[in-house]
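Usage

Read records sequentially. Each one opens with the input sequence:
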Amino acid sequence: MGEMAAGAAAQGLGQLARGQRPDLAQLMMSPGNARRLAERLSQMRGAVMKVGQLMSMDGHGVLPPHFAELLGGLRDQAHVMPASQLAEVLEREYGLDWHRRFRRLSFEPIAAASIGQVHRAETHDGRVLALKIQYPGVRESIASDMANVALLARTPGLVPAGLDVASLLARVRAQLEHETDYRAEARAATEYRRRLGRDPVLTVPAVADEHCTDCIIATDFAPGVPVDRLARSGAAQAERDHVAAALSRLAVHEFFRMQLVQTDPNFGNYLFDAASGRIALIDFGATEAVTAERVAQLRELGRALRADDGARLTAASHAAGFTAAEDPPEQTQGVIALMRMAGEPLRHAGPYDFGASDLFSRSFEQGRAQFFGEGYARTPPPDLLFLQRKFAGTFMLCTRLRARVDLAAVFAGEL
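and closes with the structure output:
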């Protein structure tokens, strides 16, 4: 914060010298300060980095654009454990003779994130596994990390004054604590796999219970690359459409049928195997059950969006908790206008061309303006924020892949 204040002061003096009136919020979240802050977050593990990922939404969202862009990089980068530390964790979890458990284990991680890193291993009977190994001390650091995030939230221009930061951060802290419970995640993955059942495209790697501990989750190894790489690999339109349609269908099925949602839409949690055309679903630390009441509320909201019925949408928004009768009229009108905009693909006949549409840029610009605008009056219930993030992340992937998806057909059976 000291570095940021110094940078802001220097820029402010420069503006005064030019006869301009400096804006504290803009100064504190200038590109230079945003870079300092995001780089500092990238050096951290655990809660601070996880919140950075949650805030970024793949480099877009209601945050200042330059800050959000830098935070978007936190989805894919983390500082990995050195080999000596990894060996200590394996010895602590599996015992002194841990190396006898596997025919081979690669010390080079195949993925690294905020809470743990993933290694490939092979058992003596030939089973190939992915071991997600938790960083030492992550669980114990959550309280202090969240205190740092709360301090960060006081940065002028980062969050609007009307946002209930305390309750939101309490919800994030509870999720983070849950995500460090690897036994719970293993159970969630098994239950999710059971509820999903057999699917021609989607698969959940089976948990290898005998190799799971409090700090290690072992599952069958899933081949493939993160789905967003298809946007950079020159994949054919049909292949991109196939992936986007499958994950859109999944988001709807999770919510309305399974009532068990993996709420983290990090693109790295979906691995596409070009050889089989299948998508492996991984990482179930952020899995949440959905109540029948919430399903009914959002089903009505979806029907109102499809019909583009403003009065019905307002009533459904009130019932779900996005708005309330006591909110300022301009606040409610802004929320409803944003929802109607987001519902555009539901009202489109046939495949919606996300690559040709500017829907997401329009939605984010309007959302950011309202988020930081005058009269912001309400923080939606935390469970809605996480569910909303899942749907937004899925549609953002459609945009990233420049996919064409018939979303009206995807939702047809549920609305």
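Summary fields computed downstream for this record:
- The CA atoms of residues 322 and 380 lie 5 Å apart.
- Residues 2-76+142-157 form one domain.
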